[in-house]
Amino acid sequence: MGKKLSRIINRLLIVTLMFIITACQSPLSLLPPIATAVPSDTPIPPTNTPTETATPTSTSTPTLTPTVTPTKTPTPVIYGPSNYPTDVDPLTGLKVADPKILDRRPVLVKVSNFPSNGRPHAGLSPADIVFEYYIGEGTNRFLALYYGQNAPKIGPIRSGRLVDGQLVNQYQGILAFVSADVNAVLPVIYNELGNRAITYYFSTCPALCDDGRNSVISVFADSAKLTEYAATKLAIAKTRYDLKGMYFNSQSPDTGLVADKITVTYNPQDVGEWRYDKTTGKYLRWIENVDNNNKVTMIPLVDANIGKQLAFSNVVILFAKYTQYAPTLHDINMWNNTKGERAVLFRDDKAVDGIWKSNGKFSPIQFFTSDGKPMPFKSGNSWMVISGENTELKQSVLGQWEMQFHLP
Hints:
globular, YerB-like fold
């Protein structure tokens, strides 16, 4: 009984002690640990993988930077001063439609500028070159050269002058004129040109004809028919001649003074002007018009054949020695200028200073820049003013050039 009672008392003591220990603890500490809940739709970054920062997307349209393509400088077209292609006119630097037209002598025609009622002139636009020179008493006259093109009506035609023999020979051409001073001029022309000097007679028509008015402004020429007349009537062979000497470059010169306008004056009532036209790249011709009150104004000079203003790619003023024998009788030294005289080329709104030389009796005039290089003409037609050595050429204002003719 005693042992049994002792075991019961021990069990009661153990239970009582456990109750006391449990009562001293927090009720929550007896609960199992609770895991922290993670929302199922939130991704968990992998261990040791850095989280990327998102870059916001721009809603604006990006600005495109244009790619700059460098402008190509066109390759200049150059011909001369020798070895021209067979289809290139050596006096204009232009290609011709039919190279056979160059198998002939150039045709040079004397064209009157006075009396003024003979204006507007006919057929000057297709000329390769037009020479202009002083003939006395304050007036000038033209000598038009046709080679790469023809004109069906050229004129009015007037008499020849001493210098015509030189110029026609330098271009190995034929000369069409009405007549000339029978004592001082005609013998010289015939001596230089022989049967290549063609004066007006009834038998020369249709190459050289009077239109029926029988006046000083009624004779006209046809350059193509003059070529045929020379071949069939005068036995002048159709063949190609060496006309080298001019140099053509399509690129405008790097140097040169501005040249918007060139005025050429022989007297207050004989004035010509060239005004540069940026649209065509040519110089347009103007001429004086004198009204009944002697008031002078400048009007466009047109070609009577087509009704369009004369336009030339090149205008040249070249200085030469005039010898005066009488008020209307002069000679000009064109053959013997071997050292060089001054020449100014006007092209592309620029004035290029240089010199001109003769290269023999049967060679075209040659032009050079001040540093001795060939003067760069623009491909196209040229108007050449032969002025006296004492002629004044100056700029009145920037870009406006004025030439006042003076002998010799």
